[in-house]
Each structure stands twice: as C-alpha cells, then as structure tokens.
Amino acid sequence: MKYLLLLYGGDLPEPQPGSPEFDRMMQEYDGFNALLERDGIDWSGEALEDTGSATSLRKRGGRVETMDGPFAETKEQLGGFYLIDVPDLETAMRYAAEIPAALYGTVEIRPIMDTAPLLPGG
C-alpha cells in the first residue's frame, strides 16, 4: 500500500542553511534515504520551496481564482514529502518516525486511495 508522508515544520525552529546543525540534519536525511534503499522500499520524495513561493487555485462559478501563498493559514508549513510503498500503516509509521522532520515538526501519514474500482474496467 502506498502512503504519503507529509513533512510539516513549525513546532521547533529547524537548523538554518549553512550551519553545522543544518549539515547534520541533511546527513540524517541522506541516512534515511539510504535506509529506504537498503530495505528495498519503493519511494520518492522531494523538499518544497517556502510557502511564500506557493500559488493556490480554485474554480468557483466557472471562474478560476488564484492567490499567492497557501490557502489555509497555519503555523506549520508543508516542507516536503516522501511517497513510500509498504505493506501497512504500522510499517509506514515506523519509517515516518525515522524522518528528521519528526524532530522539529510533524510527519502526517496519509494512505493513497485505491482508485482502481473507480476507473473503467477496474
């Protein structure tokens, strides 16, 4: 089953780029990526630009509306994600606990919906 691990920052300040603490955190991410590889987990993941670079879009009454930034105001900001394919939620939680973002913010674990029954011929 596929799970999206959403990485939110905001509870505690993260190390700043260029600092020794930031370099250690990035090494921890490299270690996490290596753990996924070593365990044979099918995965992908990316860091996201700051919310100041985001654009939100919605369509109402046939009109497209756009706005700068995220739609919802929140203290925590989505900073990145991992998409992993593991057998169950317990396994997803075990990997999520190893992500460095869990030390500074929150890792939200969301199962990917099985859309096969919704597709023609599914």
From TrEMBL:
- Which SUPFAM superfamilies did the record assign? Dimeric alpha+beta barrel
Q: Which residues form the YCII-related domain?
A: 45-114
Q: Which domain of life is it from?
A: Bacteria
Report the PANTHER family cross-referenced here.
BLL7171 PROTEIN (PTHR35174:SF3), BLL7171 PROTEIN-RELATED (PTHR35174)
Tell me the protein family, please. Answer: Belongs to the YciI family.
Q: What protein name is recorded for this chain?
A: YCII-related domain-containing protein
